[in-house]
# Entry
Amino acid sequence: MNLSRLRQELSEVNRLYQAQLRVVMSHKGMMSGSVYLLRRKCGKEGCRCRRGELHESWVHQCRENGVQRTRMVPKGMRPRWRALTDEYRRFRLARREMTRLSARMLELADLIGRARDAREDIVKG
Ligand SMILES: [Zn+2]
# Structure
């Protein structure tokens, strides 16, 4: 790969990196885990859930000290908790991308370094 192509790719990777950095540096709050609608049977005799009308409740599930925990989402908090867990997922994804992109940036820096190396001048001289 020629030097100008390498520079071009490094600029592009840097641009993508900056976009991930903005996600990580956001002021938005976040919360690990996920919010979803839990549908279940209660087991009571004659209950409507026996006829397939399952009980529904919004729950938040996350891992705490390695243990899976499920709790009810407080009334009226579903949109906020959804937004918080969505933001956490965005954060984690951005961080993962930063790892990948920074590794590529270092590779490109090394390739550029090699392409810029003028040592052969010395050999010729
Ligand atoms: Zn029931």
